[in-house]
Amino acid sequence: METEATIRRQGNSVGVALPPAILRLMGFSVGQTVSLQATPDGLLIKAKRTRPTAAELNAQCNLKAPMPDDLQAWENMRPAGSER
User: Fold this and answer.
1) Confidence check: pLDDT of 83 > 90
2) Would you give the DSSP letter of residue 71?
3) For 31-72, what is each residue's pLDDT tens digit?
């Protein structure tokens, strides 16, 4: 999809208003952070990947999965010092 937009002054910066059709097509939303990259062909705008939260990472864990052998061996080691 190709469309035109006008570069406008916004305070001390400039901005380009993205048409609603482009926002929908790209899955962008107002307030979302995007990354900008200058390329030989023009400006590349990509959704910025956010770091997952601890809750999102934990939700991916299978709590019924067996513990790996190396971790099981670590759990079963005898104390070597004053730890209990």
Assistant:
1) no
2) H
3) 888 999 999 999 999 988 778 889 989 999 998 999 999 999
Cα distances from 38 to residues 21, 28, 44, in angstroms, run 23, 19, 6
Residues 6+ apart with CB under 8 A from 3: 19, 21, 22
CA separation, residue 20 to residues 7, 8, 30, 31, 54 (Å): 16, 17, 10, 14, 33
Segments making up each domain of the chain, as ranges? 7-47
At residue 14, the 3 state secondary structure works out as strand
pLDDT at position 84 over 70? no
The mean of the pLDDT values for the chain is 89
Please name the residue ranges forming H helices in the chain: 20-26, 54-59, 69-75
For the domain covering 7-47, report its CATH number: 2.10.260
